Amino acid sequence: MIAKLLLIIFYILAPAAVLWVCRRVKVLNKIGPVLTLYILGVVVANIGLFPTDPEEHKAFTDFQDSISSILVPLALPMMLFGCNFKKFSLGKSLGALIIGTLSVAAFVVVGYGFFREHLGEEAAMMGAALTGQYTGGAANLASVKQMLGLSTENFVVLSTCNLIVSFFYLMFLMGGGVQLARKIVGKRAHVEQEVNLEEYCDENPYKDFGKKSSLRQLLKVLGAAVVIMGISVGIGTVAGGGNGISMVALILSITTLSLLLTMWKEVRTWDKSYDAGMYIIYIFCLVMATMADLSSIDWHQSLYILIFQAVIIFGSLFVTILLSRIFRIDADTAVITSDTLVNSPICVPMIAATMKNKDVIVTGITNGLAGYAMGNYLGLAIYHLLLTM
Length: 389
Prior knowledge:
Layout: H1 2-22, H2 26-31, H3 33-45, H4 54-80, H5 92-119, H6 123-135, H7 138-148, H8 152-185, H9 212-240, H10 247-261, H11 273-289, H12 299-326, H13 331-343, H14 348-355, H15 361-387
Helix pairs in contact: 1-11, 3-11, 4-7, 4-9, 4-10, 4-11, 5-6, 5-12, 5-13, 5-15, 6-7, 6-15, 7-10, 7-15, 8-12, 8-13, 9-10, 10-15, 12-13, 13-14, 13-15
């Protein structure tokens, strides 16, 4: 009992400590909190701190699994409350979003066709999870994992390989990819909307969470998320038909109900909800990492997973750029949309700064939120498509 209590405390406090260290250590800041948490979790899981007796180990793993199963359904509504589609600009932004998501889906299918024999029994689940990842973000990857029952080992491998490939993707964009896209498309965005870049580059979004106003808001966010999760558990239980909770029905119900709630004006004023949900995702990543047994990972298979993800990321980027030229979408809008789908809205300011075009930040973040909202649906659709191949 004491060991489990200590583990819970570790899960809650470790992300805060990692965020604090990342802001002060340049190397870790470049790596990012997600990868740092994965590294920390994997180290903790493989240095002999956890029970080794088979029965005790299983009980401990079941406890960790129970924690992880609660975190994603709780985090999803919080993150989706941040979606304000009234700010969504139609026309070129919507066109770039459609092209970007279809390009990701297309290369998931193409990559699956080439590599499925090397990806193991969960190849279709991996394709679906990566569809969610590259149209939304880590939360979608976690959601699809729970919907379809992807193993923890493969989840950790997907997450780790994604961080490696995404790093090279960002280096490519900042090292000349933006200029190459402008040459191919031949146009650059010019939007007459001034945006304060610093608003989206706050190094510590949690710095004022202790204020009374923030705490009141967080209680509302948490209450709404719990209510939505409760309703969705009921829907999932009914959909399960006596065979337990249907994770597909659960996750899709949470997504749908959360998006409907964003129509309420007050919900759209909850500016702390996304960061609160992201913190829970940080905890989830740490929990998943502490469940990873390195001795059970197939490293040969992991190489193919890495290549599979590289095909999806870079393939979808170049197709998005080429189709943007055909459909007269400017290069900056195309690139920022690809970036936000692959890396989530967090990386939008970084690429906008590389472009020296802060006007694309709104488009990038809005498209990223839209992709995040559709990621679970698209991931599930791609899963069923891959099963037919």
